[in-house]
């Protein structure tokens, strides 16, 4: 019997993984697999081993591990394979495959567009204000892995017609978010619509990004900065996951 395990990063804020757990339930309801569970690499529980053990206990003979990550960064390329190897050693009778991460997907882009529209419903009506789009991502030491985020930014700019747009990072890559805001202001932006391109509401969304944006507002008192909601829970993510599950394993 096949099973699916969604694997997210995890957070010290235990409730941040609730959306992923709910999506595992939706996968079961839609018949993606008779067994679907969720687990975490760090901080939160269940761990990947605990999630797989639950699948095995329910009768699973194979498991597809779906990285619940937007990009193919360090956690997907380096950390997850080691955890999967440990699981394979613990359950030698189990067939294990790993699907690709989310990457660029038009339904993911559509969710991002909807989040922007929640705070800026009609970007074309800016009342003469030079408006800018800022997509805020985490960043990764594997800089090439950020390409899907840059594609999302380009797609969103095409759909919204913001005259200015930038992709910026919390860590590891440039431009950093604070620098990107300064650059957009220097280019004449009077309004910035900032999208947190994150799946979970962990420490970065609760503490780091609010601090960065508050400092930016202090530096640029005449600049309006609107923060859109993060991606969070959305049923369209079930379609994204289903598509990735159907692709060749890593």
From TrEMBL:
**Domain of life, source organism:** Bacteria
Answer whether the UniProt record assigns the keyword Metal-binding to this protein: yes
TM annotation in the entry: none
- GO function terms (MF aspect): lyase activity; metal ion binding
What keywords is this UniProt entry annotated with? Lyase, Metal-binding
InterPro entries referenced in this protein's UniProt entry, alphabetically: CbiX-like, Sirohydro_Cobaltochel/CbiX
Q: Name the CDD domains on file.
A: CbiX_SirB_N
Name it: Sirohydrochlorin chelatase
């Amino acid at each position: 019997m096949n099973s699916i395990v969604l694997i997210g990063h995890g957070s010290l804020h235990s409730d941040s993984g609730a959306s992923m757990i709910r999506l595992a339930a939706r996968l079961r309801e839609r018949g993606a697999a008779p067994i679907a569970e969720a687990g975490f690499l760090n901080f939160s529980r269940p761990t990947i081993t605990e999630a797989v053990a639950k699948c095995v206990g329910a009768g699973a003979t194979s498991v597809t591990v779906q990285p619940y990550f937007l990009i193919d960064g360090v956690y997907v390329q380096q950390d997850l394979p080691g955890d999967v190897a440990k699981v394979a050693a613990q359950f030698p009778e189990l067939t294990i495959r790993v699907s690709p991460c989310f990457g660029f997907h038009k339904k993911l882009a559509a969710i991002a567009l909807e989040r922007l529209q929640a705070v800026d419903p009609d970007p074309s009506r800016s009342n003469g204000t030079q408006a800018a789009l800022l997509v805020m991502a985490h960043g990764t030491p594997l800089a090439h892995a950020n390409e899907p985020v840059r594609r999302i930014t380009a797609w969103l700019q095409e759909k919204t017609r913001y005259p200015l747009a930038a992709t910026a990072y919390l860590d590891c890559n440039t431009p950093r978010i604070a620098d990107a805001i300064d650059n957009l202001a220097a280019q004449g932006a009077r309004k910035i619509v900032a999208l947190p391109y994150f799946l979970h509401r962990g420490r970065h969304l609760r503490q780091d990004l609010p601090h960065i944006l508050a400092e930016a507002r202090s530096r640029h008192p005449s600049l309006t900065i609107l923060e859109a909601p993060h991606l969070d829970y959305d049923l369209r993510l079930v379609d994204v996951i289903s598509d990735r599950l159907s692709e060749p394993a890593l």
